[in-house]
Specification:
This protein is α+β, with helices and mostly antiparallel strands. Helix content is about 30%, strand content about 30%. The strands form five sheets. It has a four-stranded antiparallel beta sheet. It is elongated, with a radius of gyration of 23 Å.
């Protein structure tokens, strides 16, 4: 068996974008990505319905070695090529769907009202018509944070493909599951985009007053917030600090004991009530200690953590 272009190759970012800077090359990747298996030169050429084999061969050669492998005179996507096709098909680099603010069949765990959602720039933004906001700003908009409408509860990441063929309620559930998976990775110190290490930082509001929903000092309902940044790519996220414990055995075990599966929740309302409705207390500032108490029905779990979000005690 002979192989060409199957050795590990590395391209600079500029060279990678240059290699993809042709409609023909993107079409080649998409055809290989949607094929049932490797394609011979003639099969791939026919699928693209072209009339210039020399031009086709030129562009195919530019992809060979990094995005495309050649094995026994057949062509297949290499891993980087698969990632490009996945990004295209997810709509993340091509689509800009519209989902105006609309009600869902999911209910607010505090007020019982139907939650409302809208899709903005790769995120599902969630609102309750009667609740005080959890955050004063939305950080998911193009151009930076913008003032959020009343009742803003936060945003859940979801690629454009997540909207296809789904009702508003199904979109919300998909976004909640996608968000949980991302936060589990972040909690474990893993970037959900590129798999590199994530650095986590706790932001503590020293003058926290959130009696009316959002503290005027930190513009959040949470006194302790988590900000996570990838050490390799541009991924960053922020949330209530307790969500950074989602991968710990203490919190995961408690959730499963209460019949709650954070990976595929059958009852998103109840899961959100536990994970978003937790109580927090800053026990000491030097050394920093905070306690987060999660409640489900008549059961509760209190986790004491340090500034690195290490669990020091559980009760």
């Amino acid at each position: 068996m002979s192989e060409e272009g199957t050795g590990a190759t590395r391209l600079s970012p500029d060279d990678a974008f240059s290699a993809l800077g042709s409609e023909m090359r993107v079409r080649i990747l998409r055809e290989l990505g949607t094929a049932d298996g490797p394609l011979a030169f003639s099969e791939l050429y026919e699928r693209l319905d072209l009339s210039d084999s020399a031009r086709f061969n030129y562009h195919l050669d530019k992809l060979l070695g990094h995005f495309v492998h050649k094995i026994d005179d057949e062509y297949a996507l290499a891993s980087p090529g698969e990632r490009v096709v996945e990004a295209i098909l997810s709509g993340a680099v091509t689509d800009d769907p519209r989902l105006e603010r609309t009600p869902t069949d999911q209910h607010c765990t505090d007020r019982g009202r139907r939650l409302e959602i809208e899709w903005q720039n790769g995120n599902v933004e969630v609102y309750c018509p009667e609740c005080e906001s959890r955050w004063n700003q939305s950080w998911g908009r193009v151009g930076g944070p913008v003032a959020a409408d009343s009742g803003y509860l936060g945003r859940l990441p979801l690629p454009p493909a997540g909207l296809k063929g789904r009702s508003p309620t199904a979109v919300f559930r998909a976004a909640r599951m996608w968000s949980n998976l991302e936060l589990i990775a972040v909690s474990a110190g893993l970037c959900p985009r590129c798999s590199a290490t994530v650095e986590r930082e706790l932001l503590v509001c020293d003058d926290h007053e959130a009696d009316d929903g959002v503290c005027p000092a930190c513009e959040s309902s949470f006194a302790v917030r988590l900000v996570a940044r990838c050490t390799n790519c541009i991924y960053t996220t922020g949330t209530g600090a307790a969500w950074g414990l989602l991968a710990t055995p203490e919190l995961t075990g408690f959730l499963f004991e209460q019949g709650l599966n954070p990976l595929a929740p059958e009852n998103p309302d109840r899961l959100d009530s536990v994970l978003s409705g937790y109580d927090e207390e800053i026990v000491s500032k030097e050394p920093f200690r905070a306690e987060f108490t999660f409640s489900a029905d008549d059961e509760s779990l209190t986790l004491c953590v340090n500034r690195s979000l290490e669990v020091l005690d559980s009760t």
